[in-house]
């Protein structure tokens, strides 16, 4: 009689973790003289745990770092408590996806505790900016999980890596177009590359033209312009432009 006993979370099995650890092997083979590797943490935590096992076996001097969200730092809490922390409610699961879940067992937690050198948490704003950076400079579309590793560097959470040879796991691009559009718009706003303003001018095409000329001299792009006449509380024959 052959009995197969699965762990409470299949993503915690040795076979599953070994498969995820192949990313660590590929990084080691493709990037010589690595000083540090950054992986997303949280969620199943299997990629971090499995890759850490592979990398530390090949070169114990390589620093392995995990990154999770400040909104639900469950891995840091679990490592501190010595057991998986209780799952926290995530108000933005659509944005964070699998990285916001909690389903890691004893194998993942023990590997992470023994082999991962550091776990840091980043804000949602840092993740959004990282998604924008990857899209602008690498032409790579990623979701929050894919960008969260870069977010640790963008946020300045790892100053000790300056001048080091570092690899970041860009591991997920599961983002729909509508969400991607929202993320890009929010990131541009965070960096003050998109702004909005309103002012009251005379209801004359000449004054509107002067306003657009000022914006043109600053090489600003006008994404949207509206004129409000009915509910303006200023003098008659004026218009609020916003």
UniProtKB/TrEMBL annotation:
InterPro entries: Ser/Thr_Dehydratase, TrpB-like_PALP, TrpB-like_PALP_sf. Residues 16-171 form the Tryptophan synthase beta chain-like PALP domain. The keyword 4Fe-4S does not apply. Its cofactor is pyridoxal 5'-phosphate. Keywords: Lyase, Pyridoxal phosphate. It comes from the Eukaryota. One of its GO terms (biological process) is L-threonine catabolic process. The keyword Lyase applies. GO terms for molecular function: L-serine ammonia-lyase activity; threonine deaminase activity. This is L-serine deaminase. It comes from Bambusicola thoracicus (Chinese bamboo-partridge).
């Amino acid at each position: 009689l052959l009995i197969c006993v699965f762990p409470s979370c299949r993503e915690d099995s040795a076979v599953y973790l070994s498969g995820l650890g192949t990313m660590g092997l590929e990084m080691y083979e493709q990037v010589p003289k690595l000083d540090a590797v950054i992986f997303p943490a949280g969620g199943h935590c299997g990629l971090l745990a499995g890759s850490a096992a592979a990398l530390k076996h090949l070169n114990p001097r390589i620093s392995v770092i995990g990154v999770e969200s400040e909104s639900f730092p469950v891995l840091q809490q679990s490592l501190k408590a010595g057991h998986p922390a209780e799952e926290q409610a995530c108000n933005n699961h659509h944005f964070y996806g699998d990285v916001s879940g909690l389903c890691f067992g004893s194998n993942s937690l023990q590997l992470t505790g023994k082999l991962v050198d550091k776990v840091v948490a980043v804000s949602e704003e840092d993740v959004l900016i990282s998604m924008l950076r990857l899209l602008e400079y690498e032409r790579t579309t990623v979701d929050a999980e894919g960008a969260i590793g870069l977010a640790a560097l963008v946020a300045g959470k790892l100053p000790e890596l300056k001048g080091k040879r570092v690899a970041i796991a860009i591991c997920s691009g599961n983002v729909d177009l509508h969400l991607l559009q929202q993320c890009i718009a929010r990131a541009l706003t965070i960096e003050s590359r998109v702004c909005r303003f309103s002012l009251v001018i005379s209801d004359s095409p000449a004054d509107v033209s002067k306003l657009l000329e000022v914006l043109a001299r600053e090489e600003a792009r006008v994404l949207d312009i509206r004129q409000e006449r009915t509910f303006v509380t200023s003098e008659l024959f004026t218009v609020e432009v916003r």
